[in-house]
Write a structure and sequence with these properties.
Elements lengths: L1 E5 L4 H13 L3 E5 L2 H7 L7 E5 L7 H8 L10 E5 L5 H10 L2 E4 L4 H16 L1
Helix pairs in contact: 1-5
């Protein structure tokens, strides 16, 4: 599997996620920002993209909605790290997109458990 993480204010956590994926024998690409992953998407296949919802700049949900026409399955392959309290509007958007969410505060262990479950489902 190929994982992608986009650096943000949670860079240490995201690098830990990358190490977790790589130590499990999977490829993990670290992108410096949303523009970087947007440029890379036509050339690569990401099985899981770990995206911080609380990132500065372009809102993660706005970006996913922009990307859906070109990559309709991208939201279902995205793991969104989000605040534990989502606005009702964001909760509806997440549901409509089909994005999987891990609520903050999040740890590498929380994400690792989700990653392990994704790996298990992909091998089934």
């Amino acid at each position: 599997m190929t994982f992608g993480v986009i650096e943000s204010e949670k860079t240490d956590l995201l690098r830990m996620i990358a190490l977790t994926c790589e130590s499990a024998g999977h490829r993990c690409l670290v992108f410096k920002d949303i523009a970087h992953v947007t440029r890379a998407l036509p050339a690569i296949r990401l099985d899981t993209l770990v995206l911080d919802a609380d990132r500065p700049g372009l809102n993660a949900l706005d970006w996913l909605e922009i990307m859906v026409p070109a990559w309709p399955d991208l939201p279902s392959r995205t793991l969104l790290l989000a605040k534990s309290e989502l606005t009702p509007h964001d909760a509806v958007r997440i549901h409509e997109l089909g994005v999987e969410v891990v609520a903050s505060p999040v740890s590498a262990v929380d994400v690792e458990l989700v990653v392990i479950e994704r790996l298990r489902r992909s091998q089934a």
